[in-house]
Amino acid sequence: MSKSAQVASLISVVALAGFSCVTFAQATSSTSAQFDRTHLPVSEPDPRHYTELDVRDTRPPPRWEVTPPDGAPNVLIILVDDLGFGATSTFGGPVPTPTLEQLAKGGLRYNNFHTTSLCSPTRVALKSGRNHHTANTGSIMETATAYPGNSGRIPNRVAPLAEMVRLNGYSTGAFGKWHETAAWETSVSGPFDRWPTHQGFDKFYGFIGGETDQWSPLIFDGTKRIDPPRTPGYHFTEDMTDQAINWVKAQQSMTPDKPFFMYFATGATHAPHHVPKEWIKKFHGQFDTGWDSIREDTYERQKAAGVIPANTKLPPRPDDIAAWDDLPEDHKTLFRRQAEVFAGFVAHTDHHIGRLLGAIESIGEMDNTLVFYIAGDNGTSAEGGMVGMFNEMTYFNGVQEQVKDLLPLIDKWGSPETFPHMSAGWAVAFDAPFKWTKQVASDFGGTRNGLVVHWPNGIEQGGGIRSQFSHVIDVAPTVLEAAKLPEPTSVNGTEQVPIEGTSMLYTFNDADAKERHTTQYFEMFGNRGIYSDGWMARTIHRAPWQVANLPPLESDVWELYYVPDDFSLANNVAAANADKLAELQDLFMVEATKYHVLPIDDRTIERTNPALAGRPDLIGDRKSITLYEGMDGMMENTFINVKNRSLTITAEVDVPEGGASGAILVQGSRYGGWSLHMREGKPAYEYNWLGLERYLVESPDALPAGKATIVMDFDYDGGGMGKGGTATISVNGKQLAQGRVDKTQPNVFSADETADVGLDNQTPVARGIGYGPVETKFTGKIHEIVVAVE
């Protein structure tokens, strides 16, 4: 064949393939009809074959890119932490939330919207559109087990909404709390598949774990840990808001035709309840009447505002919660301050959300932004127990704090000197009109959260209330429908589990639309229930403050409620409807089998121990780890477990002329942990027991300049968990100091503070060696440290 014939043949083939210059241009159109969006990423067309020799005889092909369908809105999902249905003024509560109020006036309030009753499960379900067990998050990441549905590893077959919209042309950013990464995948070794920037987000600024110190947070920018700004009055909520505002303004400046998808998840109002004093002062005296009165007043406001039906009953508080009038006066004094701090935290959070919305308004994008403001990923937390806590870590270590010890801290409550949580009595009040709280998946106090949806371009008339049953798994399909995007059947080469939620778009402009999400199971740590066509069957297996001596699952008593006539689940009709109850109990088992809920595991704190939970452990069976200078920010679930056992720390260091000071190796925070350090040249070991008691073993003499091998031997007493031991410090083979540590923390040092070599990264474990990574930095040279356990 001649060359000219070959060229002609090639042109013919290219034309038949649909890639002539005109056809190629058509193929690059951004309309949905031109793309197969069911397989993501969208396949790029083959490039045109050119036959011209000289580029001047051609026209360049048009740019090919995937863009969203015309009119696709921006999306902003706001998720506040641990905030119950009866807290915000928007849903009848005692705390003014003007930002939420303003959105509700122009949008819609949903009073029948549900979560999973706990942090990680709600977040994964929200951003995937699948049930939490489908996504392997039957509980929080730190209590994952080896079983399907609870393994803590989000599977590739459950692609997140953020990745779906990113691959359809959105810019995506996540700010604040994550808490969706398997606990053993949070080290420098990764894998990073389940970190935000591998879960669909171009930008992430926030913290990875379940909570953080709002004054001294553990922040990541993408996958890189960074130190927070050291500015007076720093607070993480303000910082993350600044970051979100900067990102969205820059994104719209650079690509104004490209919509954004933002996930804005505050660490507030989860414990620790950290808030500036000026916000606490706004609520002085406003909770003096106590939790019973506040709960009843909220209930009456909710009825008057139409947030709940007029026939709603107020169930009695749980039996374990004392009546306010029966409390001693000193208890009331403490509890009032706890509520003032929490209310200030709520109001402070709503204020900064308002700043973000104001920024979006200022760049002219508010009308075309679909906003979901979810007031709580579960009900208000009752994990503070009967009296609250100066240090929330006491809950995770099975230690009951005493009112007499907390009263002297009232003026510091909410400050950097506390890590506080309020009493469970307030949780019940802020969950009005329901009986139970966070963790109780079988009561609406644990799962029903206030939701406001705002979208001027998509909601014809604002100010309404929607009462159709809905669930966090409904948000993802709502976004896809609003953006005119199909549900993908495969993402990044993996066939997808179908979305299990139901789009809520049908309710936006039809208040009386027939309910479409008609069946939903609930389960968390043994509390379980099933909603179906207006009926709710449930059993209360455990209260949030119960972590031991639980009854057998088989002995749980089931109750039955008809929700259309019983908004608050106050009228158990099981006795008169035995057949319906049996039918729903059978349906629960069908759904539980289908979605990998079984077998049910009602253990809570025990499951924080990987060995007991059966989940992977980064360190595994290794008995030692070698550490080097520069290794800091090691989260607790990726560090060798030194709890409840004997250990030896051997540090090879150089001491400069004049002596050394600073941290050698620390783990934990000012609220619990241990520190091997030098102060004024003297090696020392300090064990900080929950910020309540401290044990210091320190050499009487400073070390001379030169190489030194510092050894700290801890001889654990044994005989159970949380026992004491003897700490011995030796240098170059010579014993310098020995002392007792009367008790140790059995379960957890910190939710987000870390193990650090050569510095103490966040709040100081030990006294007298400084605050933060600069002041606590070791002034000598660390060659290596070996931590060995028995």
From TrEMBL:
Metal-binding recorded as keyword: no
Keyword field: Signal
Domain of life: Bacteria
One Pfam family this sequence matches: Sulfatase
InterPro entries, sorted: Alkaline_phosphatase_core_sf, Sulfatase, Sulfatase_N
TM region positions: none
UniProt keyword Signal present: yes
Domain Sulfatase N-terminal: 73-483
Secretion signal, residue range per the UniProt entry: 1-25
Recorded family membership: Belongs to the sulfatase family.
Identification of the protein by name: Arylsulfatase
Organism: Parahaliea aestuarii
Lineage: Bacteria, Pseudomonadati, Pseudomonadota, Gammaproteobacteria, Cellvibrionales
